[in-house]
Amino acid sequence: MKAMKRNQKTKTQQLALAAKSRGYKYISSVVKSHYSTTYYHINDIDDVIANGWTPAPRGQYGDWYGRIGTSAVPQNTVAKKALFGGDF
Hints:
Elements: H1 11-21, E1 26-34, E2 37-44, H2 45-51, E3 58-61, E4 64-67, E5 77-79, H3 80-85
Parallel strand pairs: 1-5
Antiparallel strand pairs: 1-2, 3-4
């Protein structure tokens, strides 16, 4: 794997810039699905451009341990999968 130059952006950051120019404010990814509910991790597009993708935090509730997500997706959100597929 090549070392990145200090000012070089990752592929996710480059795609986030393109999505921002199209009016998107957030990028989402699916964390998990439980029965009929899908949970998402939402990143602010400006944070992704500045710092790269931040993975969903881990949490614990009783015996359950895993990624934490939300079932509500704000308007102006593009799916991370759509970014890489060019479908945004």
